[in-house]
Amino acid sequence: MFPPEMKLSIILPVLNEEHHGFLKQSLPLPHELIIVDGGSTDNTVTLCRQHATKFISLPNSNRAQRINAGIKAASGKMLLLHHPRSFLEPRALEQIPETGWGGFTLAFDNTGVPYRLLSWWSNNIRAKRRRILYLDHCIFAEKALLQDIPEVDVFEDTLLSRQLRTITQPVLLPGISTTSSVRFRKRFLRQWLKNQVIKTGFFLGIPPNRINRFYERGFWLNSKR
């Protein structure tokens, strides 16, 4: 259980988050809450300013740049990188250990069979076996372990996991991080295949900005055009 005397800082990188409802569901969050906005044009800024311990405006930034700004501003020993389209159940924060790094068990807000299979793969293969955690696991880590996250447009969480797993093994906690299925709702198979294409491109060394333009097309959830 995370001891009350040890400070936890929660970093929330946002960009036009009002419409999906996860932000309203998550706020307010306990502990030090640092919200970094990438230039939202909806009501996200107004909503966040009501609840943030520290609010940082970073227009035209990608998600990795917003996370790095939050890390620099954090005063806690342990940091939680909270995905803006995920919801952590209230008891989950109590499970964060005093040291190390890891994330929470991922589940989608859609309980259909394809989504359960995808979350099983994310938790049991990618996280536990390959030790790669995506941001929708809501990654936590000691601040002392966190170097600057590579400020790429996509797969910054993969690169972060690669850095951290050379230091110590990640822990996947039982608390649930329920994440949005927005990218899959129209055409699940098409989006799944698209994800495999961008992963292949990443491992082949295609520049992340080119991969992100393909990935974000039609959504633009993590960065602006």
Structure summary:
With 225 residues, this protein is an alpha/beta fold. It has helices at 22-26, 44-49, 63-73, 113-127, 156-165, 188-203, 208-216; strands at 8-14, 32-37, 54-57, 78-81, 86-88, 101-108, 140-142, 171-179. It has 7 helices and 8 strands.
Report on the structure:
The protein has a single domain, classed as Spore Coat Polysaccharide Biosynthesis Protein SpsA, Chain A (Alpha-Beta Complex), CATH 3.90.550. With 225 residues, it is an alpha/beta fold. It is 32% helix and 20% strand. The model has no long low-confidence stretch (mean pLDDT 91). The longest helix is centred in the last third of the chain and has 16 residues. It has an eight-stranded mixed sheet with strand order 3-2-1-4-7-6-8-5. The chain starts with 7 loop residues before the first strand and ends in a 9-residue tail after the last helix.
- CATH A-level architecture: Alpha-Beta Complex
Instruction: List the helices and strands in order.
Output: EHEHEHEEEHEHEHH
Helical coverage, percent range:
25-40%
CATH topology, which one? Spore Coat Polysaccharide Biosynthesis Protein SpsA, Chain A
Query: Tell me, what is the CATH class?
Result: Alpha Beta
List the helices and strands and how they pair.
Blueprint: E1 8-14, H1 22-26, E2 32-37, H2 44-49, E3 54-57, H3 63-73, E4 78-81, E5 86-88, E6 101-108, H4 113-127, E7 140-142, H5 156-165, E8 171-179, H6 188-203, H7 208-216
Parallel strand pairs: 1-2, 1-4, 2-3, 6-8
Antiparallel strand pairs: 4-7, 5-8, 6-7
Helix pairs in contact: 6-7
